Amino acid sequence: MHSPTIRCGNSRIKNYLNVASEVFSGFFCDRVICVSSSIFDYAKPFFNSDKLIQVNNGVPEYKLNLSRNYSVTNNNFNICCVGLFRERKGILNLVKAIKKSNVNCNLNLVGRFVEESYRKEVLNECRSSNIQVNLLGFRDSVQEEMLKNDLFILPSLPGEGLPMVLLEAMSVGMPIICTNVEGVSETLQNNVSALIVEHSSIDSLSKAIIRMHDDELLRENLGMCSRNKFENEFSSTAMTKRVSSIYDEFHAA
Questions:
Q1: How far apart are CA 24 and CA 172, in angstroms?
Q2: 139 pLDDT band (50/70/90 cuts)?
Q3: Is residue 117 pLDDT above 90, yes or no?
């Protein structure tokens, strides 16, 4: 299980149908793998506890240039956000937080919007706030695109599992601001490997953006710490070994 399907989309009927499909499919499985402890807890009412098992998400390691420079080039501060953008991804809150911060920056959105109405709402807010936004679409290498930026922000509202883009940002040592939604607090530590703010709080997010913009040493320390955390716990190698061991148990039986 990757995310709480009951909060996955804007349609309550579709969400309930997805939950029913998920539970029905899981009935025929010997194990249900949950990608984080929050998803493990979410799944408990639907499945017997002996069927559930947690295996953290993982992404491939990226050959990072260890001499990476965390300074801002030509006073051109770039903020990156990656995803399949819909309301619960919190992009509108991010735009409002950037406006409130008065930080002069470029907002680079990697991915696409699910709904045209939400895309227009975000773009209109950017125009009215005089924020430069670049819609970059999907990219072959998300990590390479991230490295063109000074800061990665995940402004999600509740409804996450363990976001893959968060792990990808960690894999390249990005300075990270994220909200305290499912999977985040068990992955990163506030003021140690990221700045974690209250979801839906534009004021908290704005203050975090200002801190990151003004403090190069903070960006470097958080980025290096998140990279170390990734290498130890969230690489695809670690995930593959854990999943393989589950199959080995059944093969041996």
A1: 38
A2: very high
A3: yes
Whole-structure pTM value: 0.83
Residue-wise pLDDT for 146-156, tens only, equals: 999 999 999 99
Report yes or no on 30 lying in a domain. yes
Beta bridge partners of residue 212, listed in sequence order: none
Condensed to tens digits (0 to 9), the pLDDT of residues 213-236 reads: 999 999 999 999 999 999 888 888
Query: What is the span of the domain harbouring residue 23?
Result: 5-54
Per the domain annotation, does 63 fall within a domain?
A: no
Nearest to 39 by CA among 86, 64, 69, 5: 5
Residues 78 and 36 in one domain: no
| Claim to verify: residue 96 and residue 25 sit in the same structural domain | no
Q: Whole-angstrom Cα distance, residue 159 to residue 165?
A: 15
Q: What is the CATH number of the domain that holds 88?
A: 3.40.50.2000
**Total domain count for the chain?**
2
Domain membership of residue 252 (yes or no) is: no
Query: What pLDDT, in 10s, does the model give residues 15-41?
Result: 888 888 888 888 888 889 988 888 888
Which runs of consecutive H residues, i.e. helices, occur in the chain?
A: 12-27, 37-43, 91-101, 116-128, 142-146, 164-171, 202-214, 216-233, 236-252
Q: Which two tokens stand for residue 46?
A: 């639907």
Q: In whole angstroms, what separates CA 60 from the centre of its chain?
A: 15
d(CA 197, CA 97): 12
Cα of 65 vs its chain's centroid, Å: 22
